[in-house]
Amino acid sequence: MSLLELDNIVVEFPTRRGPLEAVKGLSLDLDEGEILGLVGESGAGKSITGAAITGLIEPPGLIRSGEVRLRGARIDNLPPEKMRRIRGKEIGAIFQDPLTSLNPVYTVGEQLIDTMRVHLGFDHKAARQRAIDWLAEVGIPAPEARLDQYPHQFSGGMRQRVVIALALCAEPKLIIADEPTTALDVSVQAQILALLKRLCRENGTAVVLVTHDMGVIAETADRVAVMYAGRLVEIGDVKQVIEEPLHPYTRGLMASIPQIGNRDRRLTQIEGAMPGLRNPAPGCAFAPRCPRAMEHCHSLRPAPQDAGTGQVACHLYGETA
Amino acid sequence: MTPQIAPDDILSVQNISKRFDVSEPFLNRVLERRPRRILTAVNDISFDVPRGKTFAVVGESGCGKSTVARLLMGLHTPSAGAIRFEGTDITHMPPGNPPELRRRMQMIFQDPYASLNPRWRVRDIIGEPLKNFGICKTRAEVTREVEKLLSQVGLIPADAKKFPHEFSGGQRQRLSIARALTTRPELLICDEPTSALDVSVQSQILNLMKDLQDEFNMSYIFISHDLAVVWYMADVLAVMYLGKIVEVGPKEQIFENPQHPYTRLLMETVPKLTVGGTERAPVAGEVPNPISPPPGCSFHPRCPLANDTCRSVAPALNLRAGGQKSACHAADEGRLPAWLRLAAE
Q1: Where are the alpha helices (DSSP H) in A153-237?
Q2: What ipTM did this prediction achieve?
Q3: How far is Cα B13 from Cα B83, in angstroms, rounded to an integer?
Q4: Which residues of B touch A309 (CB under 8 A)?
Q5: A252 close contact with B: CB closer than 8 A
Q6: What is the mean pLDDT of residues B318-343?
Q7: Nearest chain A residue (CA) to B207
Q8: Cα–Cα dist A260/B123, whole Å
Q9: Is the model's pLDDT at B234 over the cut of 80?
Q10: Which residue in A267, A259, A264, A260 sits closest to A242, CA to CA?
Q11: Binding-face residues of A in 98-127 toward B, CB within 8 A
């Protein structure tokens, strides 16, 4: 059984001009200990997908249909009180901005100790010792002294290390990491990714890594899911998606990334922009920008079908090709 | 910065510094005996920008690269040093004065959400400089010019009556570029123009900027933290660390044979799109606090080659065999190991 299953989830935000579907029927599953990269442009629905898993979609937004299952048990319809028990204990979260995800008026130690006391039932002394171990584990020098400091006394990279320790200390089976390194400098980014990857491997923690940065995906993920306009367009092993992508959107996306050493005078660009979420076209959402669009692409929406190491939603593949 | 002093430099910067007083308020200093604290954001840097080329500045956050941009635009006054635009000293010129000189320099900012007035329509945003600088005399002329500029940056004339919130991030950055182009500037200062954008949009904007540079023979000062973007845009490259230029020279030279350990660190940490093969070597440490920078070479706490000289004497920016300059004792003394990772063809 998969650790996490998303079954055709639809996330909707009611607005004055009618409901807006940010995620339009997304299915994926994740095995124990697996790192899944979830990529896409801003507005593609990747962060909303992460929030749907953790039950953190801001009202009035809601999961209109579909199911989120953790080890076979539905978690999308749990009352908030029960979901709070799962969040932190079963599912950890790491967000982009480490300053806003730590409480500024508690010391780093208090936050770690409270988390472990609540979720693991440790007494204060044991929790404090574990907290020191965790800070050492995430590479914070002088952990005993740092334990009693406040988040503002840490630098950005150090704060993100604390957030990782906080997400992992309750020993969850799954972590949702939403752009964990976007706010950091590249030299620090490498340290944080290496750390996250090592700790998750050691503890058998699965990760959903939400990012727009293909470089981060390439060095961290096992599998990659590419989202476009609220839908999954391609999912497969990281090697395939990065090196031999199938969907024309993924191809365009990969080609538009500047690479040192490439001597082309111009970058490859995908013309146009991602369509808005309102008034979705009947066909493939990428068809208006697609260099290989066929007539029926504009009228018939492609369903995800098995291709390569995963699935792709494109008329170029499968029996309709 | 080529070895010879080219007469065709559009901008020349000599030994500029910018120090910010970040002390606590006077009473706290007196009553709580807190010391004065001075942050040196830009520390004695010099460079020349060749005409029609792109001079790129790279570095991590806090290295002073945005402060350099603001100094050049006259948004900050340098604490020391001189800035010359085509030989004219503009260091202490009040902003916007004389208009003729300021007209020839324009700036594009990082955040396309904060740099456009949300209450103005596009035609007012782009039309204002046209009127202010007296480029267009009549309303009809302004309208025509705004429409022309919009089509030059890939938007349509009908966009003139819209408000900024009706545009996506990439389109807003196109508006910023159109606004900067109103005065037909010769020098465009771009502070991280694409770092708030998605990659697929980034490539559109970078291509547009290259096309416009060719069309109008503009010089760019391109500030970025992304080495791969800089590889595409730069002709000349300067690497900054803690307010200092640590390496400067022709782009190809610096990418092929970097002569400063920090430049090498930056290049090694660029995420590569290869799976499983080379992992980025995580580098220990972070950028130190610029209020109390380490003595000697400011990079020495993170540098694997640091020795006693590095810890006590600040290195000078010296010319290297490849044609670039770098400030490194290890390179001076021949201790810098050969650079093995060549730029992939």
Answers
A1: 156-168, 186-203, 214-220
A2: 0.80
A3: 5
A4: none
A5: yes
A6: 85
A7: A266
A8: 38
A9: yes
A10: A259
A11: none
Helix (H, G, I), strand (E, B) or coil at B257: coil
Q: Which residues, given as ranges, of chain A have pLDDT below 70?
A: 319-321
Q: Other CB atoms closer than 10 Å to residue B82's CB: what's the count?
A: 15
pLDDT at B28 over 70: yes
Nearest CB among A216, A219, A256 relative to B200 is that of A256
Rounded mean pLDDT, B118-142: 91
> What sign has the CA pseudo-torsion B14, B241, B323, B209?
negative
**A270/B272 touch (CB, cutoff 8 Å), yes or no:** no
* Bridge partners, residue A208, by sequence: A36, A176
The alpha carbon dihedral of A127, A194, A209, A142 has a sign of: positive
- Residue type, position A21, single letter: E
Provide CB contacts within 8 A for A28, sequence distance 6+. Answer: A5, A6, A36, A225, A232, A235
State the average pLDDT for chain A. Answer: 89
Q: At what angle are helices B139-152 and B169-181 packed, to 10 degrees?
A: 130
Top mean-pLDDT range of B21-25, B105-109, B339-343? B105-109
Give the pLDDT confidence score for residue B280 in this predicted structure: 59
For residue B2, what pLDDT band results from cuts at 50, 70 and 90? Answer: very low
Nearest residue in A to B289, CA atom: A155
Compute how many other C-beta atoms are within 10 angstroms of the C-beta atom of residue A70: 20
Residues 6 or more apart from A83 whose CB is under 8 A from it?
A55, A75
Question: What is residue A108's predicted lDDT score, i.e. its pLDDT?
Answer: 95
Separation of alpha carbons B40 and A163, rounded Å: 31
Per the CB < 8 A criterion, the answer to whether B102 and B96 are in contact is yes
